[in-house]
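We close this part of the discussion by returning to an individual protein. The sequence in question and its structure tokens are set out directly beneath this paragraph:
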Amino acid sequence: MRRFTFLLRPSWLILAVVVAGFAYLCFTVLAPWQLGKNTRTSERNDRIANSVHADPVDIGTLLSGSGKNTEWRRVTASGAYVPDSTVLVRLRHLDGQPAYTVLAAFRLDDGRTLLVDRGQVAAAEGGTHPPVVAAPPTGAQQVAARIRASEGVIEKKPPTTEDGYRQVYTTDTQQEAAVLGIPLTPIPTDGLGGYLQLESGQPGAFTPDPLPQLDSGPYLSYGLQWLAFGVMAPLGLGYFVWAEIRARRREKFEAATQPAATTQAAGPPADTDRPGDATTLESPAPATAAKPNDPPSKPKPTTNEARLADRYGGTRR
């Protein structure tokens, strides 16, 4: 087991913790996040596709339900618009130009009141002010619409009153109920308070929001990529461990075989006492005496130590 003791070094321990943490996030957070978005997008696309050919149902049959899978359902509603209930949603776009979404309250025949999205209108010239918005028709009306989920509220952007209109930044049933001072009934939509979005050609409708494109997006591929990263990270760490062990074995083998190779290259000592040898050996040069103040010379590192120092910046044990 001594060959694995280098794994207890701080650098290897830190690397192992980082790899384990990254793999954990890939499998428990990042991949489920993208795969969940793919699932929700696919379910939404299925509901939209099915609603195109499905017959509309009366909204009253859905107001007391659980609201599961009700968004984008086509419905009909009978009642009348509440006078002076226009609210504009700011920062919208129509054909690439600034626009406003027009909201109004619609009271059903049974007395309950719903929030209705009448569609979008282009901003006045300059794009900074709303145009003159026509009031909804009066009297009894029957409209066809789709159920939409509320968008929520932006706390840092409260409702305002500008240019003679009450204006908000999102379409939210509870927020508009507070702005209008009217108790609006939220339509159950997967736990959120929904509203009605009028279809084209309905009484009081402007330009409706287009249906989303039925595209699942790249979420599935992103999720699979995070799963692949979670598998590749530990495999990469294992490869580096194997490469380190292999390098240590090679260096140990080279260190063990180097002295034997040097002895064989030197050969037997030369015989200088044979008679008749005309070659006279020169006396070796006398060694230079060390001066008293000279520092002691450092031992020259071996080949193995030099290689380890070059890789790790110092001799390791």
